[in-house]
From TrEMBL:
Subcellular location: Endomembrane system
Protein name in the entry: Sterol desaturase family protein
Membrane keyword on record: yes
InterPro entries, per the entry: Fatty_acid_hydroxylase, Sterol_desaturase/TMEM195
Organism in which the protein naturally occurs: Erythrobacter ramosus
Length: 320
């Protein structure tokens, strides 16, 4: 089966859509685009492709090694098993949910994923804001169960490519709501705006890639409310359009924290959630939301509050 990367073919579509949204923004929402910010986002997109080409070999090698240990075998012509494709797509999306959730709850992984969130704008160019340092998070390990289930690494990569293409169009403010049935099952601009928001009620929710059902199933879904303007970005805004600082700021911050922390807390700065500190001098998203709830008396859906922690790694660090 020939190598096929669907994302490459989608690039012209991305360019046309970004230009169309820029025209929409000029007429309807001039604040949606900021030229310097768009330039940083596009550089992230370009750089992540280069980083993928340079560092992706490790992930591919690991997946191919694991494939030798598969417990199910779709045969030598695995790509002809038609039903394996939709099944792989759905399971890969489930995998995406967990990688993404870990990307927000484990600082080591957040150091890379923060790149996707550091823009204070929300438009189609934000979708292209992809990390350069994903290879250092070992997120590839989340895909191993799929390989062991017999899905060939190439099939998984193609499904992952289509998953990423799907997520492009949801990075927009131009679409308010899709039909109710669609909002119920699929990830949409409305659901993903919530994910990019820093408003306390929305923090660390809606991790979905294609199907929003995973968030509903695992208790991390929060619907968008219409009477509260969204503030996009990260809790502590970057305040800079310097590309290299944008790429590496969280890695630098994390390494500095580990360096300065007492020995028994060093590992926690790697594995606990962003904002955690051993002396409680900073705030995690759960602390921010809890304070906001006390201040406003607003009860958000239990789903959003219960995100608090099911991060088993963080839990085991509690005693550290
Ligand atoms: Zn995210
Ligand atoms: Zn996004």
């Amino acid at each position: 089966m020939p190598e096929f990367n669907p994302t490459q073919y989608a690039v012209p579509l991305f360019v046309v859509a970004v230009l169309a949204e820029m025209i929409w923004a000029k007429l309807r929402a001039p604040e949606a685009y900021e030229p310097k910010d768009t330039l940083v986002s596009l550089s992230f997109g370009l750089g992540s492709t280069v980083a993928g080409a340079l560092l992706g070999g490790f992930a591919i090698t690991l997946m191919l090694l694991a494939y030798d240990w598969r417990v199910v075998d779709f045969g030598p012509e695995w790509w002809t098993v038609w039903w394996a494709w939709p099944l792989c797509f759905v399971l890969d999306d489930l995998k995406y949910y967990w990688v993404h959730r870990a990307g927000h709850r484990i600082r080591w992984m957040w150091a890379s994923h923060v790149n996707h969130h550091s823009s204070q704008h929300y438009n189609l160019s934000t979708a292209l804001r992809q990390s350069w340092t994903g290879a250092f998070t070992f997120g590839v390990l989340f895909g191993i169960p799929l390989v062991l289930l017999g899905f060939h690494p190439v099939m998984i990569a193609i499904c992952g490519g289509f998953n990423l293409i799907y997520q492009f169009w949801i990075h927009t403010e131009a679409i308010k709501r899709m039909p109710a049935w669609f909002e119920a099952v699929m990830n949409t601009p409305s659901h993903h705006r919530v994910h990019h928001a820093t408003n306390p009620r929305y923090l660390d929710t809606n991790y979905a890639g294609v199907f929003i059902i995973w968030d509903k199933l695992f208790g991390t879904f929060t619907p968008e409310v219409d009477d509260e303007p969204i503030r996009y970005g990260i809790v502590k805004q970057l305040g800079s359009f310097n590309l290299l600082w944008s790429v590496f700021h969280e890695w630098i911050g994390m390494i500095a924290d580990i360096w300065h922390a007492p020995w028994k807390h060093k590992l926690s700065y790697l594995l606990r959630e962003p904002g955690w500190s051993h002396d409680c001098s900073r705030e995690t998203s759960d602390m921010i939301r809890a304070k906001w709830q006390v201040r406003t008396g607003i009860e958000v859906a239990p789903a959003a509050t219960s995100v608090a922690d099911r991060n088993p790694i963080a839990g085991s660090q509690e005693a550290a």
